[in-house]
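Researcher: Here's the sequence for the chain we discussed earlier.
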Amino acid sequence: MARKASGRWRLRAAGIAALLALLGGAWLWWQMDHWQPPRSAYPLQGVEIGTVDGPVNWRVIKAVGADFAYLDATASAFARDDSFVRNLEEARAARLQVGALHRYDPCQPAERQAANFATVVPRDAGLLPPAVELDLLADDCPVKVTQSGIESELTTFLNQIETHTGKAAVLKITARFESEYRIARRIDRNLWLVRTRFQPDYAGRPWMLWTANEQLATEAGGRLRWVVVQP
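Model: Thanks. This is the structure I predict for it:
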């Protein structure tokens, strides 16, 4: 009888432990999905939005706390985000500050990429500083690109889009790009880093923007790339 009771107790204990683990996992999942840095620490918060996010309700995005939006505009030498013009109009109508983002391709000439950006993004003093995403590596370029070549071409690209916009660009650098090329240490621009939940430190110097949650669940529907500004 004692052995049977002991066996039943162990089964119950195992069941309780499994239930607690399940509840703990669900709580952690919910926290990660809905976590935003506290407004007391980061008063200015916003989003990055593009076609990949599907149709968005900008009034709801404003209501959940976005002060600004960076809109995916162009990529490489030819690609353009189909939703950029609509998102620009609707985000402004919802009274958000707006900026444009280009996804830089180290395999393509700087002049062609800058021309693509200038064709899509208007010359508008009301826009936030342009952002340049640095994530693609040069590993698969048809023609070998050296690190010095990447730095030189990127500098040319930045000079051209900064002439177009009249503002210094922000470099949105991912951890893998920085690990490969150390651009944050070589080009003096404000930084935008990416790491969900935990503050990023891979650039070796302070950041201005931080994608703090790459898949924030909100009443706006879908998932938002949630960004905060260093106060």
